[in-house]
Amino acid sequence: MVTSAQVSKTAVGVDIIEIGRIKQAVSRWQDSFLNRIYTENELKIARSASSLAARFAAKEAVMKALGTGFRGVSWKEIEIVNSTDGAPLVKLYGRALQRSHELGLTRFEISLSHSRKYAIAMVMAHAE
């Protein structure tokens, strides 16, 4: 018999994006796009279109794990930064943080990858 104390909750989100779409958005809207989507810390880390695309996909993957879609939280309430060893970390603020608390999600694991054309992110959020 499994009790509720033994059941842990996990939420998953995944997203893939064409790197060319991010290049086009940066080319067309420049700083207005960058400053609407990315935090200052992310812009310091992400120096290439592939890195920006991976972080964009990561933000969407987090939104999916939170069950909000992009209408429930703002882009900058989800921040994808690097740990001291370079691994990506998820930081939440505002409504994204509130939603994670409502769901009891306390730990986020994230993986980012890209090829020449695509960037992908997968997030696993755990309640502990």
Short description:
This protein is α+β, with helices and mostly antiparallel strands and 128 residues long. It has a single domain, classed as 4'-phosphopantetheinyl transferase domain (Ribosomal Protein L22, Chain A).
Verbal overview:
This protein is an alpha+beta fold and 128 residues long. It has one domain (17-127): Ribosomal Protein L22, Chain A, CATH 3.90.470. The protein is built from four helices and five strands, in the order βαααββαββ. The protein has helices spanning 19-37, 40-45, 49-66, 94-103, and strands at 10-18, 78-82, 88-92, 105-114, 118-127. It has a three-stranded antiparallel beta sheet with strand order 1-5-4. Strands 2-3 form a two-stranded antiparallel sheet. A hairpin with a 5-residue loop joins β2 and β3 (88-92). α1 (19-37) packs across α3. The longest helix is centred in the first third of the chain and has 19 residues, at 19-37. It is globular and about 40 Å long.
CATH hierarchy: architecture: Alpha-Beta Complex
- How far is the first residue's CA from the last residue's CA? 20 Å
Radius of gyration: 15 Å
Q: Tell me the CATH superfamily.
A: 4'-phosphopantetheinyl transferase domain
Shape label: globular
**Number of helical runs?**
4
| Biggest beta sheet attributes | 3 strands, antiparallel
The secondary-structure class comes to alpha+beta
Q: Biggest sheet: strands side by side, in what order?
A: 1-5-4
Indicate the low-confidence ranges by residue numbers. Answer: none
Key traits:
128 residues; alpha+beta; Ribosomal Protein L22, Chain A; 3-stranded antiparallel sheet; two-stranded antiparallel sheet; 41% helix; globular
